[in-house]
Design goal:
The chain is elongated and about 75 Å long. The chain is an alpha/beta fold. The strands form 3 sheets. The chain has an 8-stranded mixed β-sheet with strand order 3-4-5-2-6-7-1-8, with helices on one face. Strands 11-10-9-12-13 form a 5-stranded mixed β-sheet. The chain has a two-stranded antiparallel ribbon with strand order 14-15. α2 crosses α3, α6 packs across α12 and α11 crosses α14.
Length: about 450
């Protein structure tokens, strides 16, 4: 930056000099995140690269991020060299373009561009997890050399990206994570720091906003805290292969089919199936059962009639209604069976169930593709976001499922599937076990059978 006569802080120099194709900066408020992104964008544009720069919303893109780019153009007296057209979110230099977009408009931007050499993501903690899937393929074309993706963000306690960052910081060589706190910016005056500190009042928010600490849970009453996730699968004497299946009326972006299989503390398979029907799900389960015999399969009663009526002839199979009362002996402790099995799942995690990848195990999805990190991130996020309370009857009850969906912007399908593996009892067709009355169960079965045609 000597040619522009700009003095940079040490971490800002590291951000600009990074050669890693995936670089993400996790920064405290006031540490110069947006300023640095505008420098990176302008320098690479002047080097003759097409770029995409993204912010959380259109207003933030226009009034904050692109405004900073305009300021850099003015500071370096580049007016007339770098041009801004009538569109306030686009800048050009010769034949090269800096395209602006928001996380709300990724599809319209990312599906139509190529020859992009760099992608810059502001406040990436607020981006959808699939933003890299959409924008990454834009980095193609004969003129693209050394493409890169650079993100910068202040952490968010309920962001799924926190799990990606935490996962990558455990030793991944593919991503470079740069951290900077508010206090690392020595250009802030004592008066400015005082205002910032007094504005951020709670200890948790100070850790997030000022110290840039990645927190995987948003409440003390969550089922599992960040530091309780084991880094490896602790040895277990349980050799049974237990599977959980959470079906849906039809998979969509919001709802998916959740599938989870474990043997003791080892995860054998973990999937979120999208764009699959019940017939293909059953085929997948049977194929899995052929090479790894399933000792017990628990599935949510809702939408499971078709799968249950086929799979019960191949393996021990149970239909579980999440609204059932808790198992015998636990009725006064848990409001329903769903609360009981989620607490059981949390217990297993705290005692060695490793929610992550096993080095010697390769996991594939139904189409033969390697399983991505997103399913692990989804499950960890759900365990950190599901909160509990004591209701008026003194029983443990979980946050309402609709409220959870609003928090994490998805249905907890993989969490429900994992929790179903933590129900250690047989219900099935045993007439001696009556968690709900036979009449009530028949009504539920008829209801979902009617929906399924």
């Amino acid at each position: 930056m000597e040619e522009f006569h700009v003095k940079l802080l040490p971490y800002q120099k590291r951000m600009l000099k990074s050669k890693n194709p995936f670089t993400f900066a996790v920064m405290g408020r006031g540490s110069g995140k947006t300023y640095t992104l505008s420098l990176i964008a302008l320098i690479n544009l002047l080097k003759g690269k097409n770029l995409i720069i993204a912010a959380q919303k259109y207003d933030a893109l226009r009034d904050v991020l692109m405004k900073e780019v305009r300021k850099r153009v003015h500071d370096f007296k580049l007016e007339g060299v770098v041009n801004f057209c009538m569109n306030p979110i686009r800048a050009t230099y010769k034949d090269f373009t800096l395209y602006g977009t928001s996380y709300e408009a990724l599809e319209s931007t990312g599906r139509g561009l190529d020859s992009i050499s760099g992608i810059l993501l502001d406040e990436v903690a607020m981006a959808p997890l699939d933003c890299l899937d959409i924008l990454g393929p834009c980095c193609r074309g004969p003129g693209v050399t050394d493409p890169f993706i650079f993100g910068a963000t202040t952490p968010r306690a309920t962001s799924l990206w926190n799990h990606r960052f935490a996962h990558k910081m455990e030793g991944s060589e593919d991503w470079e994570i740069i951290k900077a706190t508010t206090y690392d910016n020595w250009t802030l005056t004592p008066q400015q720091l005082n205002i910032i500190e007094r504005s951020v009042q709670t200890p948790m928010m100070k850790r997030q906003e000022l110290l840039a600490e990645i927190m995987l849970n948003g409440a003390d009453a969550c089922l599992v805290h960040e530091d309780e996730f084991p880094s490896y699968a602790a040895p277990s004497s349980d050799t049974r292969v237990i599977a959980g299946l959470d079906l849906a009326k039809g998979s969509s972006e919001r709802d998916a089919f959740g599938w989870f299989v474990r043997q003791g503390n080892r995860v054998l398979d973990m999937k979120e199936f999208h764009d699959m029907d019940h017939e293909r799900i059953v085929k997948y389960v049977l194929d899995f059962h052929r090479h790894t015999p399933i000792s017990q399969l628990n599935m949510d009663l809702a939408w499971s009639e078709y799968a249950y009526n086929i799979l019960k002839y191949h393996m021990p199979c149970n239909q579980i209604s999440f609204g059932e009362r808790a198992s015998e002996g636990n009725e006064k402790e848990y409001e329903n069976i769903r609360a009981e099995i989620w607490f059981n799942l949390a217990w297993h995690v705290k005692h060695g169930l490793h929610i992550g990848f096993i080095p010697e195990t390769t996991l594939y999805d139904a189409d033969g593709n390697l399983l991505g990190a997103d399913v692990c991130a989804h499950l960890r996020q759900q365990l950190c976001t599901v909160t509990w309370f004591r209701n008026k009857r003194g029983r443990l009850q979980l946050i309402d499922k609709e409220e959870l969906r609003k928090l994490i912007h998805m249905s907890p399908d993989i969490g429900d599937a994992a929790a179903l593996t933590c129900l250690d009892r047989y219900t099935g067709d045993d007439p001696t076990i009556r968690i709900v009355s036979n009449e009530a169960r028949k009504k539920q079965q008829l209801k979902y059978a009617k929906y399924m045609g």
